[in-house]
Protein backbone atom coordinates (compact mmCIF):
# COMPACT_ATOMS: atom_id res chain seq x y z
CA UNK A 1 0.00 0.00 0.00
CA UNK A 2 2.84 2.41 0.82
CA UNK A 3 4.38 1.83 -2.61
CA UNK A 4 1.08 2.48 -4.33
CA UNK A 5 0.57 5.80 -2.52
CA UNK A 6 4.16 6.80 -3.25
CA UNK A 7 3.71 5.96 -6.95
CA UNK A 8 0.50 7.97 -7.14
CA UNK A 9 2.11 10.93 -5.38
CA UNK A 10 5.11 10.71 -7.70
CA UNK A 11 2.82 10.67 -10.73
CA UNK A 12 0.92 13.71 -9.50
CA UNK A 13 4.17 15.56 -8.88
CA UNK A 14 5.53 14.66 -12.32
CA UNK A 15 2.30 15.76 -14.01
CA UNK A 16 2.37 19.06 -12.11
CA UNK A 17 5.96 19.75 -13.12
CA UNK A 18 5.27 18.89 -16.76
CA UNK A 19 2.21 21.14 -16.79
CA UNK A 20 4.18 24.03 -15.26
CA UNK A 21 6.99 23.59 -17.79
CA UNK A 22 4.49 23.55 -20.66
CA UNK A 23 2.91 26.77 -19.46
CA UNK A 24 6.31 28.43 -19.20
CA UNK A 25 7.12 27.37 -22.76
CA UNK A 26 3.76 28.51 -24.19
CA UNK A 27 4.15 31.27 -26.77
CA UNK A 28 3.07 34.74 -25.76
CA UNK A 29 0.55 35.97 -28.34
CA UNK A 30 0.75 39.59 -27.22
CA UNK A 31 4.54 39.70 -27.47
CA UNK A 32 4.50 38.08 -30.92
CA UNK A 33 1.78 40.46 -32.07
CA UNK A 34 3.66 43.51 -30.81
CA UNK A 35 6.93 42.38 -32.36
CA UNK A 36 5.64 41.43 -35.81
CA UNK A 37 2.10 42.60 -36.55
CA UNK A 38 2.45 46.20 -35.46
CA UNK A 39 5.18 46.74 -38.05
CA UNK A 40 2.37 46.84 -40.64
CA UNK A 41 -0.68 48.03 -38.71
CA UNK A 42 -2.05 48.92 -35.31
CA UNK A 43 -5.08 47.60 -33.51
CA UNK A 44 -7.40 49.96 -35.41
CA UNK A 45 -7.81 47.28 -38.10
CA UNK A 46 -9.68 45.16 -35.57
CA UNK A 47 -12.03 47.85 -34.34
CA UNK A 48 -12.95 49.66 -37.55
CA UNK A 49 -16.64 49.36 -38.50
CA UNK A 50 -15.97 47.76 -41.89
CA UNK A 51 -13.65 44.96 -40.76
CA UNK A 52 -14.11 41.79 -42.78
CA UNK A 53 -13.34 39.26 -40.07
CA UNK A 54 -16.40 37.09 -39.43
CA UNK A 55 -15.10 34.05 -37.56
CA UNK A 56 -12.23 32.52 -35.65
CA UNK A 57 -11.39 30.40 -38.71
CA UNK A 58 -11.10 33.53 -40.86
CA UNK A 59 -8.89 35.16 -38.24
CA UNK A 60 -6.62 32.12 -38.16
CA UNK A 61 -6.30 32.18 -41.95
CA UNK A 62 -5.51 35.90 -41.95
CA UNK A 63 -2.84 35.57 -39.26
CA UNK A 64 -1.18 32.80 -41.29
CA UNK A 65 -1.41 34.95 -44.42
CA UNK A 66 0.26 37.89 -42.67
CA UNK A 67 2.99 36.00 -40.87
CA UNK A 68 5.58 35.85 -43.68
CA UNK A 69 5.26 39.52 -44.79
CA UNK A 70 5.63 40.45 -41.12
CA UNK A 71 8.98 38.64 -40.99
CA UNK A 72 7.73 35.84 -38.77
CA UNK A 73 8.16 32.11 -39.19
CA UNK A 74 5.81 30.87 -36.49
CA UNK A 75 5.01 27.42 -35.28
CA UNK A 76 1.37 26.34 -35.14
CA UNK A 77 1.41 27.08 -31.40
CA UNK A 78 2.66 30.61 -32.04
CA UNK A 79 0.01 31.23 -34.70
CA UNK A 80 -2.63 30.00 -32.24
CA UNK A 81 -1.25 32.27 -29.53
CA UNK A 82 -1.49 35.34 -31.79
CA UNK A 83 -4.98 34.36 -32.96
CA UNK A 84 -6.09 33.89 -29.36
CA UNK A 85 -4.57 37.21 -28.32
CA UNK A 86 -6.33 39.11 -31.11
CA UNK A 87 -9.61 37.28 -30.55
CA UNK A 88 -9.59 37.64 -26.77
CA UNK A 89 -8.83 41.36 -26.95
CA UNK A 90 -10.78 42.49 -30.00
CA UNK A 91 -13.15 40.15 -31.86
CA UNK A 92 -14.31 37.79 -29.10
CA UNK A 93 -15.48 35.02 -31.47
CA UNK A 94 -16.73 31.85 -29.78
CA UNK A 95 -14.03 29.19 -29.41
Explain what you see:
The structure is a single chain. The protein is mainly α and 95 residues long. The chain has a domain of 65 residues: Cytochrome Bc1 Complex, Chain D, domain 2. The chain contains 5 helices and no strands. α2 crosses α5 and α4 crosses α5. The termini are far apart.
- Described by the principal axes of the CA atoms, the overall outline is extended
SS class: mainly alpha
Q: What sequence of helices (H) and strands (E) makes up the elements?
A: HHHHH
- Give the percentage of residues in beta strands: under 5%
Q: Outline the biggest β-sheet.
A: none
Residue stretches low in confidence (pLDDT < 50, at least 5 long) are 9-23
Question: CATH topology of one domain, which one?
Answer: Cytochrome Bc1 Complex, Chain D, domain 2
Mean pLDDT: 82
Helix coverage percent: 55-70%
CATH architecture of one domain: Orthogonal Bundle
Straight-line N-to-C gap: 44 Å
How many helices in DSSP terms?
Answer: 5
- CATH superfamily caption of one domain: Cytochrome c-like domain
**E-strand count:** 0
Radius of gyration: 19 Å
CATH uppermost class of one domain: Mainly Alpha
Amino acid sequence: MKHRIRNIAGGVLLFSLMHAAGAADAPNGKALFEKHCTACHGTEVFTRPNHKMQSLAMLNTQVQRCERPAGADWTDAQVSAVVNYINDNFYKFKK
